[in-house]
Amino acid sequence: MRMVIALGGNAIKKPREKGTAAEQLRNVQETCQHIWELVRDNQVVITHGNGPQVGNILIQQEASEPYVPAMPLDICVAESQGLIGYMIQQSLRNVLQTHGVHKDVVTIISQVVVNKEDPAFKTPTKPIGPFFSQGRAEELKKEGISVMEDAGRGYRRVVPSPDPLRMVEAPVVASLLDLGIVVIAAGGGGIPVGEKAALRGIEAVIDKDLASELVAEAIEADYLIILTDVEQVALDYNKKTQQNLEILTDREAEKYLAQGHFAPGSMGPKILSAIRFLRGGGRKAIITSPGKVRDALQGEGGTHIIPHQSNQ
Ligand code: ADP
Ligand code: MG
Fold first, then answer.
1. What is the pLDDT of residues 251-301, one digit of tens each?
2. In the chain, N or C: fewer CB atoms in 10 Å?
């Protein structure tokens, strides 16, 4: 089977950690322990988030400005794909080798085309990178950079989060899968690029779950597996009436999404990705935690989202 496994933030950096190289590598290694059998038995693309990592890279740009020229956001995203891809590439290969499985693992620097006319460009919503003083925020505004007050914690840069349309490297990913190679792609949602006459990097970020779905459709994956820090999706999440979901159809998912059960920016895009995936021909989407993924594939736990007409 072909599958896309999307790794959430926790798989790489836990909320209370500083994010040292050793901490991140340990988390990645632990995640690889949970997924290596899936990788052995299937054609797998691994995607991942990059929020904390690209945030730190942006802090480095700001702090080193007098000495080294700051890089624009698209290049920072590319850097984060390299650093996280490297950790997964090495850890997964090591775990596979330990179990006598010889598979090549490779990271693809991924560009994702977005529409410059996407309404997201009119209202940047996604806060990224370091917090600034009001003074620095004013300077940045004069340079044409959008800055907003972030929940009383200081000023932060905000960028648009447009809908992904196409991953430029998707055909390469499909060819690598045919060769039995494990591919890490669409890191951090991919590097957003515009496509007028030529490809060109854009100051924006793409939701990693929506980008993962795009890859899953492009490679005609059977399963889209989204690993995050909850074992199951719930209705009335965090309320007394919380009800965890075992299985639901794309139609039910759409109804609950419209009713506001899934927070925008966290569970919302995962559910929307699952719906898009099934309507694009996918067989099943599973949302669960890394530790539960093996059980979930055996039908034990996790949240399974299936096509309305399916009777699986
Ligand atoms: P990731 O890095 O994996 O994308 P997110 O924080 O973006 O992680 O999304 C996972 C989070 O979504 C969970 O930790 C949970 O707090 C939140 N969440 C919001 N709505 C729901 C829901 N209905 N059911 C389960 N979790 C939900
Ligand atoms: Mg998320």
1. 999 999 999 999 998 999 999 999 999 999 999 999 999 999 999 999 999
2. C
The minimum-distance atom of ligand 1 relative to the CA of 232 is 25
225: tokens are: 């597996």
The domain segmentation of the chain, as residue ranges, is 2-114+163-306, 124-159
- Summarize the confidence of residues 203-210 as an average pLDDT: 97
Longest Cα separation, the chain: 62
240 belongs to the catalytic site: no
Mean pLDDT of the chain: 95
Q: What is the mean pLDDT of residues 173-199?
A: 97
Whether 284 is catalytic = no
pTM: 0.96
Q: What's the pLDDT at 310?
A: 58
What burial letters (b/e) apply to 59-77, b meaning 16+ CB within 10 Å? Answer: ebbeeeeeeeeeeebbebb
Closest CA to 52 of 8, 88, 9: 9
CA-nearest residue, atom 7 of ligand 1:
266
The one catalytic residue in 115, 126, 201, 280 is 126
Classify 2-114+163-306 by CATH class.
Answer: alpha beta
| Eight-state DSSP code of residue 258 | H
